[in-house]
Amino acid sequence: MSTTDSSSTPGTDAKDTEPKDTESTDTTPEVTSDSTSQTPKTEDAAVTPADKVTPADKVTPADKVTTVDEPAKADEPAAVDEPAKADEPAKADGPGTTETVTETAAATTASTVTETKAATATATKTAPAKKKSSFSFNAGSLRQNGIYFAFAAIVLLFAVLTGGDLLQPQNLSNIIVQKSYILILAIGMILIIIAGHIDLSVGSVLAATGAFSAVLMVNHDVHWAIAIPLTLIMGGLIGAWQGYWVAYFGIPAFIVTLAGMLVFRAVTLVILGNQGIGPFPDTVRNMANGFTPGWFGNIALGPLGGADVITLLVGVALVASIVWTQWRARAARQKLGQSLEPFGLFLAKIIAPSIVLMFVIVQLARFKNLPWVLVLLGVLVVVYTLVTNRAVFGRHIYAIGGNINAATLSGVKVKQVTFWLFVNMGVLAAVAGIIFSGRLNLAGPTAGNSFELDAIAAAFIGGAAVQGGVGKVIGAITGGLIMAVIDNGMSLLGAGSEQVMLVKGLVLLAAVAFDVVTKRRAGASSR
Fold this sequence. Notes:
It is built from 20 helices and two strands. By secondary structure, the protein is mainly α.
């Protein structure tokens, strides 16, 4: 390589070129050696493709090329396949060589990095995704829908054992009316259990609020439109009392509500003076035992006889809502790319509930139309289903029950949510107290005995998890109906009370054991 004459370089001073020539002369051998070992000649570099600039023994592995933003060490010359520092241009032999080498190095580096990123992206896309085992899907589906299959099996069993008497119109109406207060309690209880708590006092609260409403409406002739809101306020205050000790004072709900079960039973005895109070006004009794009037008359159903038009229209509307909500939920999951159940199972989830619902509706329409308490229960189910599935408060309930520490760190106001859950439970217990007292037409000191156990059993049979975080309102209603069918079916068979308690206890144990087993197997299959 020849040394460039400084005098031939345009725009260069004679005073400045002389020291530069001396410095260039001293360092030329070292630079020439490095340049020769790492780069080809300038003329070759201009025509050589970028992938041939770096010799084979200097090729950087792909896993190291990606770290292009790591600066080169100061005491080591920059490699050709690494970008040169902005403040340290590569030394060259002649004019234009520095720019050519830098451009060549940058092109080589960019090409290698691009190829590496493309290969990584291709590998990521083509990597087989971890398939969800069919067992885990079936276990999750069985856990969610198993309660409905169990309910259908129990109904069919008792229908066969009773010779069809279980499914007669009058008997179906009696099941709903007689167990409506348990279903109302189960709605509030499922929320408490989802949040990881328990309430043992709902039976005593039901008795106390029923006694309070009886004193107002019977002894003091307070109009029912005023007495009922005052009773609901009393239930809310009882719930706030218990919620304070649980949420803000930190006493476990089991202890607080166990104390409340004793305290409010004593309050009931004090209010009633250890005697029953009745009768209730006709409006309250009609709300607990009455039926909707036949505004549009009856329609002939052939051999089934006449049926109330309003009741049938309500049934058709409910079936349409089932189809619409299920289809909308499936479309939303498909749009988000989530896993879908087989289409046959999807159709079964629509057709089976629709058939069962229309059968019940037709039977009720053939008897005495819709019970008013069923209308109230339907409104409560819709409202609380929307709260748990759509409202922020409902999401917070599940978050607290799933992981209270994570919920706290996420900004959920755990104490407030817990407090209002117990307030809500007190209000629903008051509603159930009014319904129960109105149905018996008497507020007695023994009202509500063991009702808390039935409500808790309904929640757990309906799919609530013992640890919290899992459960649905419709599941609690289904669990309560299972208990009601067992009670009614065994009564039709003439079974004794001890046999009824035995069967109900075994059903509760089987439901909780089923929940535990499905959790374990689903967890094992996902590992």
